Amino acid sequence: MLESLRMITALVTGIGVVLLFAAAVGRLPRRATLALLAVAEVAVVAGVLIDIAWLVRGNSTPELLTHIGYLITTPLLIPAGLGLTYRKIDRWGLLIVGVATLITAVMIIRQVQTLGLRFGFLNA
């Protein structure tokens, strides 16, 4: 489970970096942007489902309510970013969805940390 979530976090972070780089350059075709966001969203939903399966198997967390909050909000961040810029994905739109994607990656890390599991060097 943990290795799958690490790969998902790396994928979502990479997509966020690509979107921020595209914002710095000035543009990315709309279809390419939507395809990247779709891949990131599918990965996030897969991560949430993996996490839910882990909880259903009887594993508990000391911060269950916080963890449930992360499970609910994490898949909504990328669509919210896209909703803010849906009409025109220009430089600022790419910046918005890039930041939303990176925030989603951080939320996945926090989601794992609320389980009481170590997630690489990011435990604080």
Structure report:
With 124 residues, the chain is mostly helical. It has one domain. Helix content is 75%, strand content 0%. The chain has helices at 2-25, 30-56, 64-73, 77-85, 91-113. The chain is elongated and about 45 Å long.
Topology overview:
Blueprint lengths: L1 H24 L4 H27 L7 H10 L3 H9 L5 H23 L11
Helix pairs in contact: 1-2, 1-5, 2-5, 3-5, 4-5
Count of beta strands: 0
Using only CA atoms, what is the Rg?
Answer: 15 Å
Q: Element order, helices and strands?
A: HHHHH
Helix content: over 70%
Give a brief rundown of this model.
This protein is mostly helical and 124 residues long.
Q: What are the key terms here?
A:
124 residues, mainly alpha, elongated
